[in-house]
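Researcher: Let's walk through a ligand-bound prediction step by step. First, I give you the protein sequence. Second, the SMILES string for zinc ion. Third, you return the three-dimensional complex as structure tokens. Ready?
Model: Ready.
Researcher: Here are steps one and two:
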Amino acid sequence: MQLYHIRYGYIEIVYFMAQHFLLSAQARSLSLAQVMRLTYQEAFDLFLSLRYAENGGKPHCPKCGGFEVYRYESRRIFKCKACQAQFSATSNTIFASRKLAIRDILAAIAIFANGAKGHSALQLSRDIDCQYRTAYVLAHKLRESMSAETKNVILSGEVEIDGAYFGGHAKPANRKEDRIDRRLAENQTGKRLCVVVMRQRGGRTLTRVGISELEAVPTIMQRVAPGTVIHADEASAWDRLQGRYDMRRINHSVCYSDGIACTNQAESFFSRLRRAELGTHHNIRKAYLDSYAAEMAWREDHRRDSNGVQFIGIAKSAAQHPVSRQWKGYWQRHLPK
Ligand SMILES: [Zn+2]
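Model: Step three, the predicted complex:
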């Protein structure tokens, strides 16, 4: 229910907003049709309830933090009573200067949430009928806000650690005698990067992308609390973790689990990232491998949530995420001249 006061030619709005139905327990499973049936106003209110979730969906001023705001009914923008600043529902968020209507953004998030092994930008652009470039940037913005969720997380308890190589596919030569062994250091192109995963059992999954497993050791020391039980394979890089952590090592050439050490949850993450690389994106650019790895970590951590809960998780993180330095105006800087 909303209460309106007319004041100085524009409308002051006082919110007594009921919880939006998509945020209720009944909406645990979400269909795209539900989102597409929203009126513009309903989509707008849903967005506000996600962005200002901590304040019951009531907007406050991004400049001074004032809670008393007027609303220009015709243009759906707000004005702060205290500092007179004008702002919109998406001002100062990752969706600022958006090209898409709010309902289309919400629909894109619903589609994105449903892609268990990711969703390609090309497909997303067809799904919501927008330019490829718009879909590409939108998907990357969602990845950025998803990965921000674990920015300050420190792992503890029991943590599985493992590394695997991704990206930079090289087509093997036609004739067998022309093929080279790319596992050898001298034959490596440098296009493949090592994704190291740190996965807390019953907790969150963190990733780090670099040249080698060894390079990830300082990050592990920062992100995993001392004294944690670490499960890892025999790779020599992990020898450096000895002493600081309670190490459980497993030799994968012998078995995957010996009842003491086991890195199956780390493997499960790699399997999802591998399926995303080969099945969805076909080719992941080296520069963005860390974003895709973080996205798949988020999906692993939320794999048991219903798609309605996943939708709200992604949409809320994004709606509350500040303007992206990397993705704001990306195509102005990257269009071919
Ligand atoms: Zn203000």
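Researcher: And what stands out?
Model: The longest strand covers residues 158-166. Confidence is low (pLDDT under 50) at residues 1-17.
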